[in-house]
Amino acid sequence: MKTITTIAELRAALVEHRRAGKSIGLVPTMGYLHVGHMELVRRARSENDVVVASIFVNPLQFGPNEDLAKYPRDLARDQAMLADGGVDFLFAPGVSDMYPRPMETVVDVPKVGSELEGSVRPGHFAGVATVVTKLFNIVQPDRAYFGEKDFQQLQIIRRMVEDLAQPVSVIGVPTVRETDGLACSSRNVYLTADERRAAAIVPKALDEAERLIAGGLTEPAALEKGVLDFLSTEPLARPEVVALRDPETLEPIEEIGEKPVLLLLFVRFGTTKLLDNRVIAPKSAHFAKVA
C-alpha cells in the first residue's frame, strides 16, 4: 500500500489504472478505524480492481462547539489495518492540502441536511457533502462505500450524487456490530466502562421497536413513545432523537402500513452521542432491504 498526501500525487498514481480500464473503489473515512470501516474496505476490495481509502478529519463538518482537536487519531495503526485489508492507496492529506485557502464553495442538500442530526448540528452535512464531492473529484471512483450506521449521511450523499449527476455508485454497507449488538463506531472509545455497558440498550431499543410493529402498532407517535420509554429504563441513557421516518426521503410518516419504515436513534451517554437505526418491515410487507 502506498500512502499519498497530495492531490496531484494521487491523481498521477491513478491515471494509468484508469487508462487501463480498471475499476476504482473509494472508502472515505476520518480515521481511527474499526471493524466497521474494514467491512467497507472488504466490500471495496471484492468489487474493484483498485481500492483507495482516505483519512481526513474534515474541519468543515465540525461546529464551533465541537472539539476538532480531540477527534481520535492514530495514523500508524490505521495504515497497518488498511494494508492488511488490501488497500492499494491511502490518501491522507493535511488540511492545507485539501483546503489551501478558505473554501468559498459549498455543496449542500438543505432539506434533508437540516433534519434530525442536522437540526442540532447546523452546517454539519454541508461540510460532509462538500468534502465528499471534493474526494469524488480527486479520486474519480466508480464506486464509493459508506456505512448504513450513519443513515442520514448516506441518504444525503445519495441525493447529492443523483442531483449533481456525479458518475459514481454509492454503496451502502450494513452496520457492523459488537457482540452485544452495539454498532461499531469511533465514538465508542469515549464511553466509560459503565456507559459502555449501558449503551447495549440502544440496539435493544431497535429490537423493541420491531416487536411493537410486529404486534400491530400502527401509530408513529405511539411507537416513538414506546421506544423512548424503553430507553428511559436505563439511567445513563439520555435519548435525544427517537424518530420514525421514510427510509428514502427521511420525511415523517403518517402511519405504519405495509411499507418499510426507518427508526433513527440518537442517544447520549455522558458526553458521547451514539447513533443507530434500523429499517423495519411490518409482517405483511414484501420489500428489498435498503442497500
Automatic annotation (TrEMBL):
Protein's pathway: Cofactor biosynthesis; (R)-pantothenate biosynthesis; (R)-pantothenate from (R)-pantoate and beta-alanine: step 1/1
Catalytic reactions of this protein: (R)-pantoate + beta-alanine + ATP = (R)-pantothenate + AMP + diphosphate + H(+)
Regions annotated as coiled coil: none
Binding site for beta-alanine: 61
Active-site residue list: 37 (proton donor)
EC numbers: 6.3.2.1
Binding residue positions for (R)-pantoate: 61, 153
SUPFAM superfamilies cross-referenced by the UniProt entry: Nucleotidylyl transferase
One example GO MF annotation: ligase activity
Keywords: ATP-binding, Cytoplasm, Ligase, Nucleotide-binding, Pantothenate biosynthesis
Residue sites binding ATP per the record: 30-37, 147-150, 176, 184-187
Compartments reported by the entry: Cytoplasm
HAMAP family on file: PanC (MF_00158)
Family according to the record: Belongs to the pantothenate synthetase family.
Assembly and interaction partners: Homodimer.
Note: The reaction proceeds by a bi uni uni bi ping pong mechanism.
Main function: Catalyzes the condensation of pantoate with beta-alanine in an ATP-dependent reaction via a pantoyl-adenylate intermediate.
Name used for this protein in its record: Pantothenate synthetase
Organism: Sinorhizobium chiapasense
